[in-house]
Amino acid sequence: MIATVVLAAWTSAQSPLPVVRVEPSVVPDGSPVLVVVCAPGRIEGRFENQPLRFRGDTQASTAALDRPRQTALAAIPYAAKPGPREVVVRITHAGQTQIHHAPFTVVSGNYPTSIVVTPPRSKATLIAAGAEPHRKNAPPLPRAEPGSFSRALASNTKARLWRGRFLRPVITTVTEPYGTSRLNIRGRRKWRSTHLALDLDGQGGEPVLASNGGVVVAAGHYPGSGNTVIIDHGDRLLSLHFHNDRLHVKRGDRVKRGTAIADVGATGRVTGPHLHLEIRLNGHRVSPESLIDLIPPEK
After folding, report:
1. Taking CA atoms, which of 15, 130, 137, 167 is between 20 and 30 Å from 64?
2. Beta strands of 53-160 (E only): which ranges?
């Protein structure tokens, strides 16, 4: 079901009544939502403390084929309290402003739990850049410039660089899903952590693809994440790719959906080859799989 709100105050002398909806109308915590507005004019919106940036959308609107369609993404934070929410949208057209409230419901993601036990003297392998077991002759990358990771996370391209559906960067099995609550045990030490990313298995060397269009804002070696690529997709949407082997892009490169940006590897603090994929939207780490499922294929 899709939540739809139409205000009758939009007079018949003007354009057809606006339609505002949130997709999906029932969403787990830790997920993105798509706010759809079918109306002419200037669109502004907000969800809690997140300003929404609406852009024209070429996808056909099933609710209002005769009206322009604009969309924006919003993030439901991980562990957000279940219950009703609403997005507030302001539409200004022909000298008149209307306020619309689009309701939706947040439910618990019911994310899995795991127990990770390692021997007292065992640590995750810290592999230097280029020192892959399967790529021993790969040239090492210099360590990234100090502060470049934080600057990349603060990137705020005020344009939408993505279009249409997002791809899974590597077609393989999931080794650890988003939202997993971990109980880590090493000897007598115990601690809890939450995995707010998607781990995708690999043997090493498989191509890692850009999930959508954007600009590379970081490409280099970092002590924990290893050989890393961060893509800014615009409108405060970032994708982060950790533990790669070779990198095929550099900072400042523009990429398209499906561009090969790296190879799966085991650099950084890891126990074996895999891709660690994070999605950050408006500063929140949300489920990559939810983003992939959110946007339908273009017709």
Report:
1. 167
2. 55-56, 69-75, 83-93, 96-107, 113-118, 125-127
